[in-house]
User: Fold this.
Amino acid sequence: MNPLDKLPEEMSKLLDGFMTHMVAGDSSAGVTAYIFWMAVAIVLLLVLIFAFKARQAKSLVPEGIFVNACEYVIEFVRDDVCRGILGESWKRHFPFLASLFFFILLNGIVGIIPGCRPGTGTIGVTAALAICSFVYFIAVGVRRLGPIGYLKSLAPKGVSGPMAALVWVIELFSTFIRLVTLAVRLFCNMFAGHVVMGTFAVLSSLFFEPILNEFSTIAVAEVGVSVFWLVILIIIYLVEIMVGVIQAYVFTLLSAVYIQLVEDE
Assistant:
């Protein structure tokens, strides 16, 4: 039997696995698989934070791969995102931006584990993250300029009359569009990445199954194809890890840029 004959059925199972399934309760009041694994990612993040602080407190000089890796990532967020975008005001916003980065990163890492689901793989979670970022940079602008002052700042200085009103409406619309783009970009990239990875996992399993069952009768060509799919799957895993890091970086970077825009008004 051609392994590809099972492909439609396996792909149907794969796509069903990405649907929202309840792990406790019902649809009206329960916990979905995505929310469950998001909670796992949060617990894992807290464990890593406390473990890092405990190990870091033992010595003034960072020791060990774990501590050095954590410090490298923290310094990356601090220097490349916060200081690089926000300048002197970076200290005020670093806790929020670092929280965004590590939350998205940990969810992405948990999501590549077989059987797990990334919290950021559902539009509800990415929308909540986008709302947090949206409310935060709006609050920064309102605190700095006041409610009326912030609304006035949407129209650039030097523009007056009907043109000012038109530009103000466009800027207001673009401000709310940021909310949509943040949510949709993160969701689509994480969801698409896991579908691609799952597809190659299905292909690899379909070609390896006959090898395990009838190794002595399998042609060398089919063995080569199976090994090829396995190599592709490993590469996809590595790419998925990189995509998770990039998505965490891009979301945090865009949030920092939006904060910087209201800081400079």
